[in-house]
Amino acid sequence: MSEKIINTAIIGFGLSGKVFHAPFLHTHSGFNLKKIVERHNDESVKIYPYVEIVRDFKDILTDPDIDLIVVATPNTLHFPMVKESLLAGKHVVVEKPFTPTSKEAEELINIAQTVKRKIFVYHNRRWDGDFLTIKKMLKNKLLGNLTEYEAHFDRFSPEITPGAWRDKDKPGGGILFDLGSHLIDQALQLFGKPESIYADIQAQRKGSKVDDYFKLNLFYPQLKVILTAGMMVKDPGPRFIIHGSNGSFLKYGIDPQEENLVKGLMPDTDDWGTEKPENGGIISTVIDGLHFDGRIETEPGCYQEFYENVYDVIVNNQEMAVKPEDARDVIGIIELAFESNKRKMGIKEIRV
Fold first, then answer.
1. How far is the C-alpha of 283 from the C-alpha of 289, rounded, in Å?
2. 16: which DSSP letter?
3. CA 64: distance to chain centroid?
4. How many CB atoms within 10 Å of residue 52?
5. Which of 11, 129, 162, 248 has the fewest Cβ atoms within 10 Å of its own Cβ atom?
6. Cα separation of 104 and 276, whole Å?
7. pLDDT tens track of the chain, all 352 residues?
8. Are 221 and 195 in contact (CB under 8 A)?
9. If you ran DSSP here, which 8-state letter would residue 126 be given?
10. 184: Cα within 13 Å, side-chain hemisphere
11. How far apart are CA 187 and CA 210, in angstroms?
12. For residue 218, what are the β-bridge partners?
């Protein structure tokens, strides 16, 4: 019996489409990357000469051979394009953040259920090597009972990029929607819904129209979760700082997959996602009465698992790894964070 092929189209060939989606569709034997929407350029055929470039999104909607559409466009276009794709009978992969509002996310979930199609939201950072390592470490209670979890996504970009849609004052713009959605999704996967939230959100760069710094405090019983990111961090500290009743864990550096994808490497490269041993996280803890200080080797990162799951859901009716309800809840936390920042007080009515 031959393997089923999922004919796929990508809308947009900027950073998202070029770096985070096309390489995985190209290297997975179950997908046929058939069309890419580029409104003005022909960049995609330089890497994928077999792909057909189209200028109009409608050319994909009306193509009966297309099974899956990847929406890799600015955030303001996610809702209308996902909606049209679903109503055209297509499954959809959409970049995070899912939508600018949780109400729009809920509407898309309902439409998908009605037309019996799937929405996959690209929360790829669930497959960062450091996060996979932390999941395993916490599952095995190497730090005992957790008391504090702090995660950073810091960058140094002190100047606003002219024309960058992420820096425009439009729905879904700013760093909280961009990088914060990753950190929030990871926290919700580890700990579930918090009891309350307090947020400090700022525009620190000169002339910035959107937030470029945030610090979220999520409160759980006996656990405080701190999520923070900024664009003015030239010398970043640890990416993760985790404390528990038995010890602590610190992790510097970021998963190498994005850097390698930007360089043009494909995810079928040998040792894909593998971090240098000297970059492993530092742990100091007590295990069965023995004091241990050292490094924990980082699990290999594997963004390809996202598309493995997309294939298995569509073809083999397997369970979704990233449920659209998960991505909706991330947007709900972002909305509560903005509400907390505006009111300068904590929010206890967690509505996700």
1. 15
2. I
3. 30
4. 14
5. 162
6. 41
7. 358 999 999 999 999 999 999 999 999 999 999 999 998 899 999 999 999 999 999 999 999 999 999 999 999 999 999 999 999 999 999 999 999 999 999 999 999 999 999 999 999 999 999 999 999 999 999 999 999 999 999 999 988 877 777 788 888 999 999 999 999 999 999 999 999 999 999 999 998 999 999 999 999 999 999 999 999 999 999 999 999 999 999 999 999 999 999 999 999 999 999 999 999 999 999 988 999 999 999 999 999 999 999 999 999 999 999 999 999 999 999 999 999 999 988 777 666 6
8. yes
9. G
10. 31
11. 24
12. 197, 225
d(CA 246, CA 301): 27
Question: What CA–CA distances, in Å, run from 88 to 1, 8, 66, 133, 266?
Answer: 29, 14, 10, 40, 31
Non-local (6+) Cβ contacts of 309 within 8 A are: 120, 318, 320, 321, 322
Q: Is the CB of residue 95 less than 8 Å from the CB of residue 34? A: no
Burial status of residue 236 (CB atoms within 10 A of its CB: 0-12, 13-18, 19 or more): middle
Residue 42 CA to residue 44 CA, distance in Å, equals 6
Tokens of 129: 């090597």
* Single-letter residue type at 327: A
Cα dihedral 63, 66, 67, 70 sign? negative
Q: Which residue intervals of the chain are DSSP H helices?
A: 15, 22-27, 44-47, 58-61, 78-87, 102-115, 129-139, 175, 181-191, 257-262, 304-316, 324-343
Full set of structural domains in the chain with CATH: 6-122 (3.40.50.720), 125-304+333-343 (3.30.360.10)
The residue to which tokens 């960049």 are assigned: 43
